[in-house]
From TrEMBL:
<keyword id="KW-0547">Nucleotide-binding</keyword>
<dbReference type="GO" id="GO:0004832">
    <property type="term" value="F:valine-tRNA ligase activity"/>
</dbReference>
<keyword id="KW-0067">ATP-binding</keyword>
<dbReference type="InterPro" id="IPR002303">
    <property type="entry name" value="Valyl-tRNA_ligase"/>
</dbReference>
<keyword id="KW-0436">Ligase</keyword>
<protein>
    <recommendedName>
        <fullName>valine--tRNA ligase</fullName>
        <ecNumber>6.1.1.9</ecNumber>
    </recommendedName>
</protein>
<keyword id="KW-0648">Protein biosynthesis</keyword>
<dbReference type="GO" id="GO:0005829">
    <property type="term" value="C:cytosol"/>
</dbReference>
<feature type="domain" description="Methionyl/Valyl/Leucyl/Isoleucyl-tRNA synthetase anticodon-binding">
    <location>
        <begin position="3"/>
        <end position="71"/>
    </location>
</feature>
<dbReference type="GO" id="GO:0006438">
    <property type="term" value="P:valyl-tRNA aminoacylation"/>
</dbReference>
<dbReference type="Pfam" id="PF08264">
    <property type="entry name" value="Anticodon_1"/>
</dbReference>
<keyword id="KW-0030">Aminoacyl-tRNA synthetase</keyword>
<dbReference type="GO" id="GO:0005524">
    <property type="term" value="F:ATP binding"/>
</dbReference>
<dbReference type="InterPro" id="IPR009080">
    <property type="entry name" value="tRNAsynth_Ia_anticodon-bd"/>
</dbReference>
<dbReference type="InterPro" id="IPR013155">
    <property type="entry name" value="M/V/L/I-tRNA-synth_anticd-bd"/>
</dbReference>
Length: 71
């Protein structure tokens, strides 16, 4: 998705929103809850969750820098 490179801000913002809402929150966080309750099941769940959250905040920063900085 090259929306940002093509200076298509609405498309890039929609892609970032889609990542946060659908990929990260709706899917990964929900799936990771069981592994976070019992870390022996999947010890890599927390590092993966943190890496995805960091990536999401880096993607969010150009559109909402103060929100991303606060989070």
């Amino acid at each position: 998705c090259g929306h940002l490179e093509a200076l298509q801000v609405p498309g890039a913002a929609a892609a970032v929103q889609g990542f946060w809402l659908r990929s990260f929150c709706d899917v990964y966080v929900e799936v990771a809850k069981a592994s976070l309750r019992c870390p022996r099941l999947r010890p890599s769940a927390l590092p993966t969750l943190l890496a995805c959250a960091e990536l999401g905040l880096r993607l969010l920063a150009p559109f909402a820098p103060f929100v991303a900085e606060e989070l």
